[in-house]
Predict the 3D structure of the following.
Amino acid sequence: MNKKLGVVITDGVGYRNFVMSDFLKEASASFNEVVIYSGLSTKMFNLDNNSNVVVRELPVFIEPKSTWFFRRLKEIAHLFNHRKKTFGIQDTLNFNKPKGFTKRAILNRIVYAVTNVFHSESAIKIFEKQQFLSFKNHKTAKIYKDFLKADLPDILFFTHQRPPFLAPILAASKDFNIPNTAFIFSWDNLASKGRMLGEFDNYLVWSNLMKTELLTFYPNTKQENISIVGTPQFEPYVLEDYQVDKTTFFKKFHLDINKKLICYSCADSSIGKNDAIHIKALWNYLKLHKDLQLIVRTSPAEDGKRFKNLMTQFPDIKWNIPKWIQTRENHAESWSQRLPTKEDVLDLKAILSFSHVNVNMLSTMSLDFMIFDKPVINTVFGNTKNGLYNDQRFLNYTHYKYVIDSKAVTIAKNETELHQQMDEAINTPEKRQEYRKEILNFEIGAPILETSKRIVEALKK
């Protein structure tokens, strides 16, 4: 109880995972003081029930050009170093290849040329050292350091291991010999993404699978410094604060309580370019089945404006635009400043609870719906030959191949397959039930209930 915990929360999803779950309640009961270092406005935190929790708002760190350059060297070197291990890393490496000849593109070309030759773990360490030295005297980095010097937490917990603008606070923790721990944020972060913001002393992961991936892609990590805790992003589904009522939900979205509900959940605009095509194909099925209705949930990372024409064309489709509030402006990653509301968590849980089938493009939402034992269909209509955005390439990503191979979901590569799979999902929803249970145990690795308690216990250790 006499220990002080520092918690770094960077974005809206981190807020949902660690503020809207039971994490703060468990942390404030186990530590004498909890200090949140927030990449979000302090106005967004309601701490009435947590008297020993304080929030320090981190000013936005804008990378100097030299910092950006060495960070890019580190990130791309990591991709080159592991490019033969997974298709996802190969795809990320190809996707980030510089195009054109702007100043930034020329610098990226230099980055690719250098790291194509120098990409060993030792080279990555050199790039990171130079990155950290490059912001040593930066005024924002000094503010971060002053915060830690004043608070001196006994441990600093990063709720996301990737955002590069947090490198100065990680560097500061190392300067003060404050032990640091990172939570691996998402199931695809290790097998398809570039280097995390730095090396941490300890890691919290979802599952044995994620532990294995961490040891594979970060070979300097010691097994004893990794704890398996599950993930708090699903915890609100089992908390009393998030109870939902079917009648209220159906009335709110003008749904017919006598019809079965189908949900299409969108990807964000960068990879969900075929969303509208998938939705139209799904609607063609519903036109033939008058006992079904459709609700579309857009990505929380955007405002849904790209579907304006579709909304006009198909007025009978219902839409759930996630109620996430845009907070701080002028941020390097403006989407990260979108903050979820409790109303949105309630809406999402209601959709998960009362839908009969989910359709999505290889999204984490597949896991959300499987938690509620709902059939899932993944639509990937695009490839290199038919002129559509090539979303079929994501079938080769390691994190999702496990799901596909488990047979917990079906894959629809065209409208005909989608309609056939809808028949199965509607008529025999229990067919893949055991497969769904198996993949959830494999991917999440720990019970959803008391996830926050396990995280806090791991931090105390």
